[in-house]
UniProtKB/TrEMBL annotation:
The keyword Membrane applies. This is Branched-chain amino acid transporter. Keywords: Membrane, Transmembrane, Transmembrane helix. It holds the Pfam family AzlD. The chain crosses the membrane at residues 6-25, 37-56, 76-94.
Length: 103
């Protein structure tokens, strides 16, 4: 499968998912399902974080510090966007070379 067809398939899947959401907007779902669905964003973010920690072994301390800093930001601000921005900035800054090692 070439890249263009992969992109088109993903675009159709996203469109179908959104269309389904619009078509089922008036449907009432049980309250237990609503409570369960409320945890999907947190579970997705957790899956991304755990998957990102399994990167190259040389970057594990950097990734762990970025995750901890993002967690602190999330704890004190209560905002998901602050958690994401702080995590990305911390990761980027920690990967910068501290000094030149050459002569």
């Amino acid at each position: 499968m070439n890249m263009l067809s992969l992109i088109l398939v993903m675009a159709m899947a996203v469109y179908a998912l959104r269309l389904t959401g619009f078509l089922l907007a008036d449907l009432r779902i049980p309250s237990a399902w609503e409570r369960t669905l409320a945890f999907i964003p947190v579970a997705t973010l957790t899956a991304f974080i755990v998957a990102s920690l399994a990167g190259a072994s040389g970057e594990r301390p950097i990734r762990l510090l970025a995750v901890v800093s993002a967690g602190v930001a999330a704890r004190y601000t209560g905002r998901a966007w602050a958690c994401i921005i702080v995590g990305i900035l911390a990761y980027g800054l920690l990967r910068l070379p501290i000094g030149s090692t050459g002569s």
